[in-house]
Every structure is written in structure tokens, then in C-alpha cells.
């Protein structure tokens, strides 16, 4: 009918808005962070210091995820998305203006909090826009848009770092994230209107309830608790090697920074192209076998990468690494 056609058209437009917004912000973020360990190496940091710096980034993002989802439900998607993209832009701008270690750490925390605010609201907004039979396709398009932007950003990061330098690359990241802030302000619908005191109350409530709510869910579901434990252990292993993937490419395989960007881009490309096949496999065989395969093959792929002797073998390994990474859905 006419109403169904109009509703479908509106949904397509809203999905396009979200995908464009997140493509731009993930492109900026990928430019900023794809080769960040290599940037820290150039600032004179050693391996331990680089690991600590990136741990601070991951921790700030993880701790923001907890209250961010609840805050998005209470305040609406728009405030979280705008503030998150603005914080990403501000952090990238700080990196472009100063190479002091103290400023770099502050910017990393800002990057982590910014993504922690942005990502849950983006996922929720897609869910708000599309429900029912079309939701799977909508999420697939959204996921591919974000992953493709990460791949493009990684490819571009190496070339920009080689030709223009890291500071110019950070400035471009700030421009992209800043443009996303303006685009989000203009296009994401306003869902709630609250007073300043109401915002403060919502923030305080979200911080309190995120911890108690998570604990309550885990206590009530033993299988989820075991899955969470397995994922935490697996994530710890991945977090130990993740910062050193681009560093090993430069220092271990002896690639130039442009080739390192290509290597990381191929990794993200592998994740992108394997998304839809991985979804079909999950539907056919179930989530448990796919997740178990991801755990086993991840360890194998990490070992292959450690043994990569040159650029070509490194590319093949990174493609395999990315395909394995897509199995964790």
C-alpha cells in the first residue's frame, strides 16, 4: 500500500543517514588510531609504555560502554551521538596540535570515551528505525558501512603518514569527526527534551544501574556468565597482541609505514567481506560452533602472523586474520 511504501522509504532514508554518519566518524577514527602504536614509537615510547597507553584507551572505552547504553535509553540517541563525535573530533585536534606525551594520553582517553558514547547509540538507533523482517539486512548494511570505513581509513592512514605526516593525518581525522558532529546535529531526530537537572539525574542513574544491572543479569543466567568469562579471557589474549600488530609489521617484517597501513587495511577488509558469509554460517550451524571456531582459528592466525617473513605473506595472513575475526558474531 501507499503507507507501507512511504514508511519503507522513510526507513531507507534514516538507515542511509546513520550509515553515512558512522562511515564518516569511523573513517576519521581509523585514520587516527590504525597506526597509533607506530606513532607512539616515534614519540620515543617503548613496548611496555605503548601497551599501557593503549590499555588506557581500551579501559576508557570499556567503562563508558556500561552506562552509555542506559543513558541512551533515558536521554535519546542524539545527545550521546553528538557528544561522542564531538569528543572524537576534539581528541584528534589535540593530537594534531601537540606531540607531548601528556596531551597524547588525554587525547587517547577522549577517543575511548567518545567511541563509548557513540557506538551503543548508533546500534540502538538502527534498532529503533527498523524492526521485524528487515532488521537483519539493516544491521548488515550498517555493520558493513562501519567496517568498510575502517578498511579505507587504514589504507589511507599509511599513505598519509608517509607523505604528510601523522600530525596532518590527525587534523584530517578531526575535520571528519567534526563534520560528523554537525551532520548528526542536523539529521538525527530529537527524541527527548530534558532540563539540565534531568540530564544530571539520568547520568547519575545510568552510572549506578549499569553496574548493578549487569551483575544481576550475569547472576541469573549461568550460560551467559560462562560465555562472558570465555570472551573476557579471549579478549585479554587479543588485547595483548592487538597494539603490536602494526608495530611488528614495521619492526619485525621491516615494512615502511605505507605498507603497514596496507597490511592493517587488508585485515579490516577481510573482516568486511566475511560478514555476510559468517552470518549465513551462523544461521545454518548456530552461534556456538562459529564462536568456538573463531577461538581456535584466532590462535592459529596469530601464530601465522608471527612467522610472516615478508609483505606478501603478511598480506595473506592479515586477510585470513580478518576472515577469522568475522566469525565472532
Give me a quick take on this structure.
The protein has helices at 2-33, 36-42, 47-75, 77-97, 101-129, 135-163, 166-187, 196-220, 222-241, 245-251, 257-273, 275-285, 287-306, 311-325.
Helical proportion, percent range: over 70%
Low-pLDDT parts are 192-208
Q: What gap, in angstroms, lies between the N and C termini?
A: 35 Å
Report the total helices: 14
Largest sheet, in brief, is: none
Order of helices and strands: HHHHHHHHHHHHHH
Strand content: under 5%
Rg over alpha carbons: 20 Å
Instruction: Write down the overall mean pLDDT.
Output: 83
Question: Got a strand count?
Answer: 0
Shape: globular
What would you call the structural class? mainly alpha
Lay out the secondary structure.
Elements: H1 2-33, H2 36-42, H3 47-75, H4 77-97, H5 101-129, H6 135-163, H7 166-187, H8 196-220, H9 222-241, H10 245-251, H11 257-273, H12 275-285, H13 287-306, H14 311-325
Would you kindly provide a written description of the structure presented here, covering whatever features stand out?
This protein is globular. About 5% of the residues have low confidence. The relative contact order is 0.13. The protein starts with a helix and ends with a helix. The protein contains 14 helices and no strands. With 329 residues, it is mostly helical. Helix 1 runs antiparallel to helix 7 and helix 11 runs parallel beside helix 14.
